[in-house]
Structure of Aspartic proteinase-like protein 2:
Amino acid sequence: MAAEGFLVMAAVVAMASAAVVSALKGGGGFQGVLTLVRAFPLEERVELEAIKARDKARHARMLQSFSGGIVDFTVGGTSDPYAGGLYYTKVRLGSPPQEFNVQIDTGSDILWVTCNSCNDCPRNSGLGIPLNFFDAATSSSVSPISCSDKICASIVQVASAECSTESNQCGYSFQYGDGSGTAGFYVSDMLYFDTILGTSLIANSSAPIVFGCSTSLFGDLTKSDRAVDGIFGFGQQGLSVISQLSSLGITPKVFSHCLKGEGRGGGILVLGEILDPRIVYTPLVPSQPHYNLYLQSIAVNGQLLPIDQAVFTTSGNQGTIVDSGTTLAYLVEGAYDPLVAAITAAVSSSVRLITSKESQCYLVSASVSETFPAVSFNFAGGASMVLRPIDYLVHMGYLDGAATWCIGFLKVQDEGTTILGDLVLKDKIFVYDLAHQRIGWADYDCSSSVNVSITSGKEFVNAGQLSVSRSSSTTDIFKTIHRTYTALMLHILVLFIGIQFL
């Protein structure tokens, strides 16, 4: 009778499995019967390696059918101007992949790396990182972009490309705000990256992208003290990597970073949305080449400064932009002078003032966090960015036994652009939600893990501690399945116990 009871139980389990499958499909009855076949014979001993090999093959099939997720990048560098003053990440390009350290720059659009034919490029870096050069001849997947290519035609329309009739190559030559620049040609090749799929599950993914191969540099880009292999532009134009990958359906049209300011720096960079209940959002100014925001007022210790609203207007070369490629911060004269005056008035009785050519400095014997006031930048939508003293001051050394701190904002003429660089961006989550044309931020310890969403109901934890949580709707589905399964198992158990006493 025990054997007969086991057979009855097995039959009921099969029916229960079919019922669960039916519930998942939304059916009201049994849709079919699952045939269960053992992967390994019951009579044979199976080695652990064989089981691991089968699991690995199964996981590979799962990854091949995956259509999108979070792309996770490592972050190095620091906001300290005396230790480089920039943040960088690694990208892998070509087949076989070649690795490059590129600066994270939200103030430009193009990803470019130095070519092996570059004569003006530095050969070593003061950042302590190796410098590499892209060799198109060794990549089996590279494809030059010709002048007749429709991609080149679209790039030329936005004035970031030029065509050489002699070489028939789609080239470029552009200059950054600090006067440095680069020139070269566009190619298409494979970009390799890590895609986070779930709990401790990372896919080695790749996608073809268009990027620049630089053959010449000029300005500060030629100097070795801050040399990197290129620049990773995170702008919102069509040729940026975030735009290319989102158009392929690989990533959502949102990316986030959390740049660590203390110690050796580093941080978090993901193509996905970091989630935190404290994040406040403000809209982007539409139809702008950069991440322009509506700055409305500035306050010191909660008191609004007497600043003419006209200096914050976005028009031509005027406005307020977020730029991770800038180390310090820049403020137009009409806002800079009232800000410095208010900060100085708040601390003049407890510090010694030092006036330098470019900035207001102070000799401080106590802690700056206890001495200096909080500064608030107030944006459209009621979003305020509260700056701690270390978010607007730069430590310049010591004099007469006291620490020297200077205002980290530099003055630009009216009709100029206010730029929020790494000094302000550090130690905060920043979310660039291109799909909804907004930017959000919140103070955060960037050495901690973060919750990241791909805006489709899945949430993951990044920064080395991967775990998965679900949206409420997804959780409800699994709770329903769990309750159904539990009820079925209890029913099976009752039947089995009853059979034993027959």
Remarks:
- The longest strand covers residues 181-198.
- The domain at 280-438 is CATH 2.40.70.10 (Cathepsin D, subunit A; domain 1).
